[in-house]
Write a structure and sequence with these properties.
By secondary structure, the chain is α/β, with parallel strands linked by helices. Helix content is 43%, strand content 15%. The protein has a single domain, classed as Rossmann fold, CATH 3.40.50.720. It has 10 helices and 9 strands.
């Protein structure tokens, strides 16, 4: 069996159509930012990519852009907090993939901060549902496409954060949820690895230049299914206050780019990391080492 797997890996490494040729991937939160960059990188490596995001217009634009560049992408927009949407997402992804799904990247998310004594139940419940509940439900719904013995690679990547690894003031909800997905990842690896060869890993990001770390005054926001509008980003005054020391605890002295962050996702699902599972990979520029 080990010899057969080695031959399959070698074939993928030498395949001219890309490292992920023949694979179908669901990437949540992929209409923009890290998710969109991951979708483009996956498509460049031959994968069929399903764009999952609550923003229908941006989902379509991202899928159209990938298709125009010669890749294969399908936009399936919707609210990842909806059980019905998750079922529909899996169904359409499997149809797009000719009856198969090979990769899930649980990337969708945002922050809704508040200090512990002022955090509302809605803030708490929404963030835990988004960052912990939704990934579990998506993996559970896609189980029939991962618990298979067809010799093809299967990967699940759960996105975490340094907040989940180390905690962060004002982010009790986000920190708990992001810490929780590391346990989910290890459980998937232990349950689905032995019989089915499924690999599961967590990527924990540090400072990445996205709308979550931009100035709140730029107007970035997300709208929940019930119409609640949540402002994203960090207040400009707070950013100004840390200007001189913003990156002093990062050995590379800068934030990462969305493309760099997405490249780590591609790396972990690629055959180059075929013997890596159950791990939390810190992509932080060296912060907190």
């Amino acid at each position: 069996m080990a010899q057969k797997r080695a031959e399959q890996i070698a074939a993928h490494l030498n395949y001219p159509k890309g490292l992920l040729s023949g694979q179908t991937a669901i990437i949540t939160g992929s209409a923009q930012g890290i998710g969109a960059e991951a979708a483009r990188l996956f498509a460049n490596e031959g994968a069929k990519v399903v764009i999952s995001d609550i923003d229908a217009e941006k989902s379509k634009a991202t899928a159209d852009s990938i298709n125009k560049e010669g890749g294969q992408a399908l936009a399936v927009p919707g609210d990842i907090l909806s059980d019905e949407y998750i079922d529909d997402l899996v169904k359409k992804a499997a149809e797009f993939g000719g009856g198969k799904i090979h990769i899930i990247v649980n990337n969708a998310g945002f922050t809704w901060d508040g200090v512990i004594h002022k955090m509302t139940n809605k803030q708490w419940d929404t963030i835990l549902s988004l960052h912990a509940g939704a990934p579990f439900k998506l993996v559970r719904a896609a189980a029939p496409y991962f618990r298979v013995k067809d010799g093809e690679p299967r990967n699940i990547v759960n996105i975490s954060s340094t907040s989940g690894l180390n905690g962060n003031p004002g982010q009790a909800n986000y920190s708990l949820a992001k810490a929780g997905v590391t346990g989910l990842t290890k459980t998937i690896a232990k349950e689905w690895g032995p019989q089915f060869g499924v690999r599961a890993n967590t990527i924990g990001y540090g400072q990445i230049a996205t709308r979550l770390t931009a100035a709140k005054e730029q107007g970035g926001h997300v709208t929940l299914g019930d119409g609640t509008k949540i402002a994203l980003g960090i207040p400009q005054a707070q950013l100004d206050g840390r200007k001189d020391s913003a990156f002093q605890d990062i050995p590379l002295r800068r934030p990462g780019t969305a493309t760099e962050a997405a490249s780590a996702i591609l790396a972990v699902v690629s055959p180059y990391m075929s013997y890596v599972t159950g791990q939390t990979i810190a992509v932080t520029g060296g912060r907190n080492m």
